[in-house]
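ESCALATION

Customer reports they have been waiting on this structure for their group meeting. Please prioritize. Original submission:
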Amino acid sequence: HPDENELIQTLTHLSQARMVYDRLPNVDLITHASDLVNARDNPGVLLHLAAVGGFAEAEDPLANLDLFFGLGVRMSQLTYIQANRLCCSWLQGTADTGLSDLGRAAVHRMNELGMMVDVAHCGPRSAAEAVEASREPALISHTACKAIYDDRANAQYVDLVFAQPYARGVPRPETPPSARNADDDLIRSVAVRGGIVALYSIWYMLAPGDDRSFDIFARHIEHAVAVAGEDHVALGTDRTFFPSWAPHPCEWTNWPYLTVGLVCRGFSDAQVRKIIGANYLRYLRRVLDKAPVE
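Update from on-call: job pushed to the front of the queue and completed.
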């Protein structure tokens, strides 16, 4: 949509964010692994990672990758709801044609730059092929476990997505969408390559109905740990950009409740530390600070 998805809009958002960071002494933008060390030595500093939801709509996606990297972006999805020149999203369902040659080139350029390859919102085939093509560990920045809740019949989520400004002009597909929640094969594939599977706390994507309990969120965490291993599961709560957002027990605004809940479910202190941040930090140290090829 011209009001949301044009390059100038993305550049405007990024520049505005940078202006805010520069004026806040306790907020740092993560662009290098050394930023993580600085934050460790300064406990009052809040770290922010700049990410974009896609770049394939541009005339030259590979050139835009270099531009975004130069502006501090260190993570990008390959798509959101579009079937673009790189791959397909979950919304295309069985029409997912996988990762294109341009998509493969984009993934490799992200690897060279030190930009995280995020397969959240990709269709199952596109996600699997992107993970396999990546020469660095990929991640799913926000998902849940399809084995716990198969969300293919979740019309509420589709309606919410199409209510957002950036969805205007994108046609609803004629075929049913794939699940947004990751299946065990994808979770395992990301993990064995050293990546991260981060789980969102969106209650209507964790179970049918209106179950907002910690129990259902914990079941997804437990299953992800069982499939991926405790070193590859993290939190990616998502959803705070929706106008209807309000805090609930499993949101990032209530971290102490979450950590106590995990302990009550039998997770050790070491496992909890990994899930709430240590796994992500280890992943960042591996992916960041590459030597980009000009």
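Sent to customer with the following note: The chain has a mean pLDDT of 89.
Escalation resolved.
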